[in-house]
Amino acid sequence: MTALSLPAWGRFGAVPVRRGAARLALVAAGLGAIGLLWWVGAAAVAADPRTAAFASFAPAPAFARFWLMLERGEAWAMAAPSLSRIVHGLAIAIAVGVPVGILVGASPSFRTATNLPFQILRMVSPLAWMPIAVLAFRTWDGAIVFLIAVAAVWPVLFATAAGYRRINPAWLRMSRNLGARPPHLLWFVILPAILPDVLTGIRLAVGIAWVVLVPAEFLGVTSGLGYAINDARDTLEYDRLAATVLLIGLIGFALDLVCQEAQARASWIRDP
Any idea what the Cα angle at residue 71 is, between residues 67 and 75, rounded to 5°? Predict the structure, then answer.
């Protein structure tokens, strides 16, 4: 029995390995294509006398500067203030978006009254609030955190509202019949039920906030990734500029992976 089962196990066990290898090959091909386009574009820029000053934007100088930034600790020094602003802005967006989203999902009257104002406000670019943020807050950090919160609150709010409206009404009726009070209903029924949707909204919010962060940090701050981009441009250090762009992309990708893992752990759907 064992001798017969080993070849079968080997055949079926090889399938995930082949799929994983194929997936890895596709990822490598995608990265290779982007790298090739970057190299070709940089070569064309270096060959043109009018744009030769930007030649250090090429992959080789950029990666060399990137590793140098990692070794010297410059990468963390640039990223830490930006991550702090992102965390504070997201915390405000979640603190506002989740309760208001539950209210929008639970109350048809409130949903009808707020739908048009919310839809109009969410269509306004967060950067359009920049003059108001500068006037309303005493510090540049406060203004940037406000802009991040304004950008991030809408995905959280609408995802939460959509999650609440998908709750099976029978769960709420059964909980009330069993004597659950509103706080128990909120903590033990509603929040667990909407958690996957909330995490989806947070994942979208992280992506939007990370995109808004860099131009927001063009304000009067002297730290962060946006400031580093501006400073590298002003000092004509295009290898540092390219390395900082690479760092922004990698950190954003890592943040999205964290959100994706949280979504997978909170999801009720499991692979067989």
Answer: 75
Give the contacts of 249 (CB within 8 A, at least 6 positions apart).
none
Amino acid (one-letter) located at 228: A
CB 65 within 8 A of CB 208: no
**Stated pTM of the model:** 0.82
- In the Cβ-directed half-sphere of 23, how many Cα atoms lie within 13 Å? 6
Residues in contact with 240: Cβ distance below 8 Å, sequence separation at least 6, in sequence order? 65, 69, 228, 232
| Cα(22)–Cα(29) distance, integer angstroms | 10
Q: Show Cβ contacts of residue 186 under 8 Å, excluding neighbours closer than 6 positions.
A: 102
> In this predicted model, what pLDDT tens digit does every residue of 52-108 receive, in sequence order?
667 777 788 888 899 999 989 889 999 999 999 999 999 999 999 999 999 999 899
Q: What are the structure tokens assigned to 6, written together?
A: 């080993």
**Which of 35, 86, 114, 103 has its CA nearest to residue 226?**
86
DSSP state of 187: I
**139-181 pLDDT per residue, tens:** 888 899 999 999 999 999 999 999 988 888 787 778 777 777 7
Tokens read off for 96 = 């506002």
Residue 272 binned pLDDT confidence (cut-offs 50, 70, 90): very low
DSSP structural state of residue 57: G
